[in-house]
Design brief:
Layout (H helix, E strand, L loop, with lengths): L1 H62 L4 H10 L3 H6 L9 H9 L6 H27 L1 H12 L14 H15 L6 H14 L4 H16 L5 H21 L4 H8 L8 H8 L10 H18 L7 H19 L10 H21 L3 H25 L11
Amino acid sequence: MGMGFRMGSRQARKIISCNILQYLAISCNERKLHIAFLGNIQMIVLFFCFLLGLLLRIYLVITLPVWFDEKVALTLAQAPFIDVLLHSTDVARPPLYYLFIKFWSLLSSHYLWFRFSSLLLFSINFFLIYRVGKNINGELFGRIASILYSFSGYFIIFDWQIKPYTGLLTCILLVYWSMIQDKLNRGIFIFSVLVGLFFDFGFLYMFVPMFLYYVYLFLHKNREALFQVKMLTVCILIFLMFMAIFPKDFERFIRETSWVGSYMDIRFTLPFFFGVSGAPFAVMPPAILWCIGVIRSYVSDGFISIKNYLFFAGYFAFIIASIVSLVWIPIFHVRSLQIVGLCFLFGIAFALKEIYLRLSYGKFIVIVILSIMLLNVLRVSYLVPVSPGLFLISFSL
């Protein structure tokens, strides 16, 4: 009797244990399915945000007339290749962008076709920001950063124009993407650095702090940084040799960029970089978010880290451009300082990620903030044709 009772108890325990294991297995599978479902929903939302940003830019491409600087680009695109390379280079930039649109014009010379090149680069940038953000701070950060780019009141100013600024951002992102890999992709790194240097002088705001960063690492016993130092030295020597060989009208450069000095007022530059031009009172909220994001990032990863390199590059570009403009020549060009806009974007993305994860109503707060940013980019899209001067654009020839 006792023996049978014990055997029955063992069987009961086995049955209960099996039921518990089956329940746990089912619960685990349900959780996996739930996580996968949420991931799919988030990717759909991400694609929808990309589509909204793309449609806004398509609207600007189609509705806005060609403005003065675009006329210059269109004129150069009609010149022979050799003239573009040797004689027609804009005094404010190297020739690669004009060679790019020269090749682009082989299919069509209509201004809308030229503007679609910027839409293509916007799409590439959206993906690159997502990948870079995911690599440095996880999936959620990558999604938030790419949505911020799509809804940016700063970057949308350039993403429809026949100008090199969207492509300049592409070069910056490609270089940074290669920098943050566990194993440096040397080919992509060297290629993107050379393309950036010959695409727009604004890439120097990425190049110089990058060179200093790798020199710092090498001096602190990081032998792997020696390769980057060597390659960056070779790249800049190639660039300087090209600039020395081909004639440049330095006096015309000074003359044609002198207007930049009148826009160095902080009341203009900060709203411009934060994407709230025309509403300077709205600078404080994104500025506070940026400060929170930068502080949290430094606490998490330290001041000198590859994850926080963009902050260092943004500070460096802002400070050096300001000093040089005040004491020598005006180079503080808010359009060429794409690295500063990217620095602000990533800082805000860090803050929104922290809010999303740490506050009880974090998800709701982030959704509200992103919705406000969407309303702001709609406002900017409306103001570009109405008050183009706010964005350094002139439709009158």
